[in-house]
Amino acid sequence: MSLTAPLRRPLERIETSLSRPTGPLGIAIGHAMSLQHYTLTAWCHRLLDPPAGASVLDIGCGSGNALRLLGRRCSGRLAGVDPSSTMVEMTRRANRSADRQDRLTVQQGSALDLPCADDSFDVVTAIETLYFWPDPRRGLREALRVLRPGGRLAVALEMTRDAAEVPTLLQRVFGAKFTQRSAGAGLSIVSGAELAEMVGDTGFDRIRFAVEPRRSLGWLCVLARKPDRC
Ligand SMILES: C[S@@+](CC[C@H](N)C(=O)[O-])C[C@H]1O[C@@H](n2cnc3c(N)ncnc32)[C@H](O)[C@@H]1O
Questions:
Q1: Among 55, 59, 74, 141, which residue's beta carbon has the most beta carbons within 10 A?
Q2: Residue 10's pLDDT band (boundaries 50, 70, 90)?
């Protein structure tokens, strides 16, 4: 038996739980994700620069941190969708003040079949979640459907094919193995160019992307707009 074998099962449980955090382990992972994704989320929101009055949907909202941060910038409705009932509850708790103001809706559901009306949001975000969607293109089409014409999309990931050409210590020790293993497990690991092309194929315009290849396992943020006539 290898020395790492006793660690493998707990690590596998954590990996599985990242794709759909549920129960007490899910709550712990939700808190850890809020910390781990804080700077990535803030970076994405800076690039997105949402209009002050925007109504916002966060897909794969997890523990609700992105909505909480967007709620400070945007005065419109805040909505979250996540397949995990544990994450739905965490998002409600993290956004109590928006809930009290009657501007919060959090629903259990999937990116592939958003429980939202057509043309209903000014901004749609998806942070650290697109890998887990069984069909990312379908999820992007759903994002396009629920955005108003002229509305903005931001997709951010911290594990991409854009990791540094000269890898950081974290990327050397951990990166390639983790990325390969995740891709082997069926996650969609993409580069900025690949995701931008996918977003363009879906029907978005004004597509641009930014990378921070030395952050985590390669930060990526793809930004796009729903055309006025769509
Ligand atoms: C790594 S967590 C990220 C959560 C949060 N966005 C953040 O940045 O902390 C991935 C999230 O994607 C959600 N997820 C998994 N499959 C999904 C799907 N098909 N549609 C929408 N969300 C999904 C999971 O339940 C989980 O909350």
A1: 59
A2: low
**In this structure, how many other beta carbons lie within 10 angstroms of the beta carbon of residue 116?**
21
DSSP state of 52: T
Please compute the mean of the pLDDT values over residues 39-65 and round it to a whole number: 97
Ligand 1 atom with the smallest distance to the CA of 40 is 8
User: How big is the CA angle at 228 (ends 223 and 230), to the nearest 5 degrees?
Assistant: 90
**Range of the structural domain that residue 112 is part of:** 16-225
Q: Decide if 90 is inside a domain.
A: yes
Is 26 a member of any domain?
Answer: yes
89 CB less than 6 Å from ligand 1? Answer: no
pLDDT at 14: 64
Q: Which residues are catalytic?
A: 128
The pLDDT score that the predictor gives to residue 1 is 46
Q: Residue 15 has what pLDDT?
A: 66
